[in-house]
Amino acid sequence: MITNTEFLQKQRYVGDPEADNLVTHLFENSLEKELYQVLGTPADHLHSISDANKELHSFIHSKKNTPDWFDAGKIALGQRFFRKYASEIMMLLGAMSLPYCYAASPGNKAIHLTEKMRNKPGKRLLETAQYVIQLMEPGSFEPDGIAYPYINKTRLVHAMVRYMLLKKSDWNMDWGLPINQEDMAGTNLAFSFTIINGLEKQQFPLAQEQSEAFLHIWRYIGYQMDIHEELLATNMQDAASLEFVIRKRHFKASMEGRQLMQDLLEHYRAEFPWPAGQLVENQIRYFLGNEISDILKLEKNNVKDALVRVINKIKNGINRHFHISTFNTMMKNHERLKQLHG
Fold this sequence. Notes:
Layout: H1 5-11, H2 17-28, H3 32-39, H4 54-60, H5 72-84, H6 86-103, H7 107-114, H8 116-119, H9 121-135, H10 147-168, H11 181-190, H12 193-201, H13 208-224, H14 236-250, H15 255-271, H16 276-288, H17 290-295, H18 302-321, H19 327-341
Helix pairs in contact: 2-10, 5-13, 6-12, 6-15, 6-16, 7-15, 9-19, 11-13, 15-16, 16-18
């Protein structure tokens, strides 16, 4: 794994050439309606679009050659790990992963400018959850598995965002490309390494092989997303090294980060029952720690912060000794949210 700043800086000017070339071709040949049709179709229904553009159809159902390091056993173990901690992982995606991405500037500028997360945070969170659920489904990475259409559809979304922001906004190339290789690597860490850290903070007794199997899934997802292999962690130590370098390079206060965080908090307060909505900001501060929380201007409140620490201390004591799979609970909640925001 390469973590030197010169390499990372170069990767800020690299996107996803295959997806970018396809999207550019479609727009420049007035075929964008076909792209929108594909992007508006659930990934598990894409096989039924018989009149889709041949290049689009081929791209959606493509997969990169299986790398030498791919381990089907680790994939299966990582998916079982997800099913065991499904509710906790979904909570951490909202409480840690997204705020991590918001704290990174200038990477957060692309999220802010597209306004998808700001205008409809519930729908965006639901789409992210559905993406993770499908990728973690047993068998999803079989040769004809559902993972590949989901991943390739995401690649097309990112390529379209790059195309639009470069063509129709005041994008500053000093920031690098929108959704560039370094930013995608950081997001991959937020969905893997950061999640494992959050579970450890809750004092679940994780075995090293479980953590590294979960990391392995996201390494393979990143590989299929066309992230440079040198930016994909092979183990927890590599992940920690890359996360540290990216955090030191890019985590800083910004208007975009603060606005995105406040929009997300407003959604949570409206969504959660009282008193959870009253404590959600302090709960996120508990998970993120003071450095990132201060970057995002999260509230400091001695009384609420102390209450959150007590609540988590009690929960953590239980977590150390007792836990059952939360997959079914997570799916029930997911179906409820689909009714509200789908």
